[in-house]
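Tokens for 6-phospho-beta-glucosidase. Go.
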Amino acid sequence: MKLTIVGGGGFRVPLVYGALLARKERLGLDEVVLYDIDEARQARIGQVLEGLAAEKGVELPFRTTTDLVDAVSGADFVFCAIRVGQLEGRVIDEDVPLGMGVLGQETTGPGGICFALRTIPVMTKLAETMAEHSNGWLINFTNPAGMVTEACQRILGDKVIGICDSPSGMCRRVAAVLGRDPKELWFHYFGLNHLGWLTEVRDGTGAPLLDTLLADDAALERFEEGRLFGGEWLRTLGMLPNEYLYYFYYAADTVNAIRGGGSRGAFLLQQQREFYARNGHSPKAALEDWRTTRHDRERTYMAEARAAAGQEGEHDIEENSGYESEAMAVVDAIVNNTREVLILNTANRSALPFLDERAVVEVPCVVGRHGPVPVAIGEVPAHASSLISTMKDVERTTIEAALTGSEQLAIKALALHPLVPSVSTAREIFDGYRRRLPALAEAFA
């Protein structure tokens, strides 16, 4: 089996490679290929991978390439996690709206729209290359994951699957507080990527567990989402939101927190510049350097939301539980027809009855050799269905803008977003992005 990682010089590639090492025999891996447009970054990450393989005592050779056709030709699976515009682009995504008092987080709000405008054309080119040279599955980690997955499904259909570890991470944390194994529980989760809610948790007997958890303030304080939203608001909702919904429920608070403490993009830019500049280390030293850098990266995840909520401390770091684990579970389910239930981004079919069948949603899916089959969710609370419908329209308008280079549609997507207060502000934001991102200005000339 050939597996290709597009974005092979990315900082999180060692997490994926480590997961591959653990499942090499079960998956029948023969070839791992790293593709990136930046050879220096690939060389740096290559040192880390060599250190990881030596530490684990497992041999899994990999090769690097800057030729996309070579990378994807004959690939059974293509993992993709790229950042078009790199972290410099993310800083601009966040900074431009923030200057106008609007949240600029990289996947939520105007920042996510700008990120998508420059990412979707690159990702659809990847999908077209795969359509010509591979009959494999595209496992997409690239953000904004829902939009990118839906755009690529126009070319590759259901062979594109979007991955996000946020819903499964919340489910694991809930299970831990309940003192249960998450594999023994059913999690009724629905929404779009970074816009979802957990409405039920049941055990094998069908006993409901979420209401009891929401009523227990002490239990809520023991996991991230409980501390972030607080018992009063969670009981008002009657469900547990994905952590990214904090940006919708507490937008102004988050803007003030970012202004007081700086954006995450700026922090990551400085941190990773330093990491990639320290090239030439032995594999062992490179691995240790990567781990230290990763710890600093993970502990500050969503720090602005915690600051806005008045929460102290660091993000709960879970080892071996990120998007790489979700991706491995998907590959395993397809290769070995396990029919495991996983929360994924895939075509709706009829999971959410208020959306059409091709709308990409994030819901539990039964995954086997033919890919994910979404579970029927049925009716959902009115405010959730309303927000999902609005955001799906924003997503699709953004996709069309990205593929056509339409300034009119780009501004429309910004103006329709619930976090953008007016059409005038949307125009100002788009003009700000175009001034600071030459490639975007060229694409929307």
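The chain has a mean pLDDT of 93.
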